Amino acid sequence: MELLSVTEMTSADALAVKAGVASFALMQHAGQAVAAAAQRLAPSGDIVVVAGPGNNGGDGFVAAADLAARGRNVTVALLGKRDALKGDAARAAKAWHGPVLPFVPGSLGRPALIVDALFGAGLDREVTGEPRAMIEAINASGASVLTVDLPSGINGDSGEAMGVAVKAARTVTFFRRKPGHLLLPGRLHCGEVSVADIGIPPSVLDVIDPKTRENSPAGWRGHFPVPGVAGHKYGRGHAVVMSGAMSATGAARLAARAALRAGAGLVTVVSPRDALAVNAAALTAVMVREIGTPVDFAAYLADARLNACVLGPGAGIGLHTRDMVLTALSGPRAVVLDADALTSFADEPRTLFDAVAAQPGAQAVLTPHEGEFARLFASLAGKDHALSKLERARLAAQESHAVVLIKGADTVVAAPDGRASIAENAPPWLATAGAGDVLSGMIGGLLAQRVAAFEAASIAVWMHGEAARLFGPGLIAEDLADTLPNVFRDLYRRFGVDGF
User: Fold this and answer.
1) Most buried of the four, 29, 92, 176, 446, by CB within 10 Å?
2) Contact between residue 152 and residue 116 where contact means Cβ atoms under 8 Å apart
3) Residues 402, 413: contact at Cβ < 8 Å?
């Protein structure tokens, strides 16, 4: 589950060596894992290993030797001179007795498989010159490509393509994946990713204490709410969703129904008078209440049983929405802010952030897409274009004092304390109108059940993607809530809940 930054992975290697594992043994195990994967990917035909001047290239030399010992016809194309290699990479190259070809595209020939052992995860500058030409030739070769650690040209921390990057059919990485394996566009370049055990003891994680994880059930199982036989609806919380005007009520209803499906015991849509009849006619299990002003809202929220609010979907942009948000944040309840609730503070974000920081004993979740993020966190969006999605989410969480969720195919959830999760289970058809409103409602439904904000957001993101995956192509937002029972059923089976 843990995702290690490039620096953290370097620390893991060093800690393993300090614990008595020989560094060359780590390289040998890595190269052998690559060779085994190469054999599976291309059981026959010629193989070319494209090796770089560092330890990634050393892994490639070990893999080449192992494959040659299996009887495969292998050549190595090396960036730089063999006698310039150092340390374990030099030792691995010395043990290779096959041909070492010039680092030119013509050395690729027409192999069945190319093993990309050029740069690995630590690349932090744009690829130019000979390496760029070689990567372009690899991509144009038509051969299957197996990449070592991370496709060359992809930054291991950000997933960014540094000018050009290898497009692999399969990637073998070691010990733990890196953020670049999950963040876009890196994930699109990796193909199928496998993680090889190369002898690094898991105990090194106790020292490293990584803060980033893949978003999967294993990471939040202990926080997942499971109703008890003796429970009742009042024990599962009461979520409140704010509706917009009559012409924009659908988003709030999507969110409200999702909150109920996600497990909230009760859900009420608070509605302006002109939209009351529309909402009442369209909702059944979800209740409707007329609320027209922030004063009315404050009086209603005085009931402590109303423990979660969702504001923003279809709310309208302006002072009214801003005042309703500040009212919701004035008491001890969980609050989800999306869409118009965020944009309403675009010209005065500090007012929102101060209100979140001052909220007594509750937690807030902000769920912007990239456009909304740029409006609310303009200082981060314009500060440095090289900031990764993960870095931006973390900095935004620290600045806003809230859990920040940046939506997308690689949704990132970050908490003010630095914890973060990255999702990879969202299918393409999840990009449909209203899907974000459903996600906000799901988070609200989990918060109503008193799931902590970071875990509630991470669980909702995963379940949202899983519901879309289970439904399949043709999905529209209304289908998501209806598919959630199947997601719950699968999770209960996975978690060993009685009766499933």
Assistant:
1) 446
2) yes
3) no
Percent of the chain with pLDDT over 90: 94
- 422, two tokens: 């990255």
Parallel, antiparallel or unpaired: strands 334-337 and 306-311: parallel
Res. 66: pLDDT tops 90: yes
Element holding 60 (H helix, E strand): helix 55-69
The DSSP element (H or E) to which 336 belongs, if any, is: strand 334-337
Token pair, residue 111, equals 């192999």
Phi-psi region of 82 (alpha: psi -120 to 50; beta: other; left: phi over 0): alpha
Contact yes or no for 201/18 (Cβ under 8 A)? no
Would you give the end-to-end CA distance of the chain in angstroms? Answer: 25
Tally the residues of the chain: 500
pLDDT digits (tens, 9 = 90+) for 174-211: 999 999 999 999 999 999 999 999 999 999 999 999 99
DSSP for 65-111, please give it. Answer: HHHHHTT--EEEEESS-GGG--HHHHHHHHT--S-EE-SSGGGG-S-
List the beta bridge partners of residue 113: 47, 144
pTM of the predicted protein model:
0.96
Confidence label for 229 from pLDDT (cuts 50, 70 and 90): confident
pLDDT for residue 385: 56
